[in-house]
Amino acid sequence: MRQSTRVDLLAQSIDLALDVVSGVPVDQYQDPTPCSEFTVRDLVNHIAMMLLMTRDAGTRAAPDPSLLTADPMPFLAGRPESDWAGLMAEKADPAVRAWSAPAAWAGEASVGGPPMAAT
Description:
Layout: H1 3-23, H2 40-59, H3 84-98, E1 108-109, E2 116-117
Antiparallel strand pairs: 1-2
């Protein structure tokens, strides 16, 4: 698969996730999800975390272990939940840009767990 195709797919998957987040009314954030340990709010926060970890993995920045337990993510803290989708959208471009460099696809990367092949 060509590198640009992978970047396009990453951008599309992030866009789809953010479309879902922006389509959920804040009054449903306390609702359950099919994953019994997650409310909708927990899942939105998890997607926010993955935006940061995806960016860091692409640049090979060391994963920030505090993100695994942050509730909410630092960039969402103190902000109304009604702003979360927009704030998350601001993190999408840096995540995609990090993987736009050919070097991002070489070697190993980690999104919070053990390193694995970046390809």
